[in-house]
Amino acid sequence: MIEYIHINFTKTHERKAYRRICLDCGKKSVFVAFFQEWYGWDTTCLRCGRSWADGEWMPLEFYRYARKDSISSARKRWKRGIDYNKERINEED
Ligand SMILES: [Zn+2]
Known about the structure:
Elements: E1 12-21, E2 28-36, E3 40-45, E4 51-53, E5 56-58, H1 66-80, H2 84-92
Antiparallel strand pairs: 1-2, 2-3, 3-4, 4-5
The chain binds zinc ion.
């Protein structure tokens, strides 16, 4: 008997980077933002690592270097681009 597992993931449709004064660290900073259907804009401050999900302030995880990890994951996501998942699916074919 063959069983199928369906894995659903949201595709990033759009991304942008801009400068603005961060509400968390209070300094002018670069933000990267990614738009996903149903979830809206996921924005991260590259100075302090604070993120907002569709405009809602998101708590940071409680461990050492959580801000640093948040910044590095946002940078990696930016470098992967918006067609990251599409490329991965094509590699598996
Ligand atoms: Zn900030």
